[in-house]
Amino acid sequence: MRFGMRWVVVAVMAIATVPDGASAQVGKSQGVVDANTAPEKDLAGMPHMTAARAAAIAAARPFKSITELNTLLLGQGLKQEEAMAFYRKAFVHLNLNTATRDEILLVPGAGPRMAHEFAEYRPWKSWAQFDKEISKYVGPEATAQLAQFSFIPVNLNTASDADILTIPGAGPRMVREFKEYRPWKSWAQFDKEISKYVGQKETDRLKRYVTFE
């Protein structure tokens, strides 16, 4: 009995010492795609889109924020409620730790209450933390729906392959390059090394999703 109990204690201690989402990542999609990387033809088939509007989105990418995309869509003649319907299918992920109120209010289903709660619990460090805090107000299903529009920056120096692959458009090539140049120490280093492979625009897009410590 003592032997069994000892192993239970060891197991509990091991679980307790595992870092809780140490590297963080992009929220799991419940059907929403990244507006910066989705194929133009897919965008054209979404609510209130036309071939011309999809082409305009593709030409202006990458967007640094959802508010940038929103400005373009309104300029293309969409009403705000039509743009919101589109965001239920395609979105520019927002950084939970830096997103402005205006950005959060463009998240379908968020509203003023979530604009307050998203900001109140900063800094966000893991999706376990997000699930715990936000589900208090809206329940687990709605929390998962909200998470897919957001990300908690991935720590480049500790992220697993799986963490890196949650970044839209970051395939095996970026996994290799992100890990090859560890330890990352500055944004200048990131710009220099990653732009060799994908150019500065794509480097800037990827930069939104990462941090280093």
What does this structure look like?
This protein is mainly alpha-helical and 213 residues long. It folds into 2 domains: 33-151; 154-211, DNA polymerase, domain 1 (Orthogonal Bundle). 55% of the residues lie in helices and 6% in strands. It starts with a helix and ends with a strand. The model is unreliable at 1-22 (pLDDT under 50).
How is the secondary structure organized here?
Layout: H1 2-16, E1 33-34, H2 40-44, H3 51-60, H4 66-75, H5 80-87, E2 90-91, E3 94-95, H6 101-104, H7 111-120, H8 127-147, E4 150-151, E5 154-155, H9 161-165, H10 172-180, H11 187-207, E6 210-211
Parallel strand pairs: 1-2, 3-4, 5-6
- Major sheet details: 2 strands, parallel
Mean pLDDT: 90
Strand-residue fraction? 5-15%
Class from helix and strand fractions = mainly alpha
Number of strands: 6
Q: Estimate the global geometry from the Cα principal axes.
A: globular
Percentage of residues in helical conformation: 55-70%
Q: Point out poorly predicted stretches.
A: 1-22
How many distinct folded domains?
2
Number of helical segments?
11
Distance between the termini: 44 Å
Radius of gyration over C-alpha positions, nearest whole angstrom: 19 Å
Compressed to H and E, one letter per element, the order equals HEHHHHEEHHHEEHHHE
- Main β-sheet, spatial strand arrangement: 1-2
How would you sum up this structure in a few lines?
The protein has 213 residues and is mostly helical. 55% of the residues lie in helices and 6% in strands.
Annotation keywords:
55% helix, 213 residues, mainly alpha, globular, 11 helices, disordered N terminus, DNA polymerase, domain 1, 6 strands, two-stranded parallel sheet
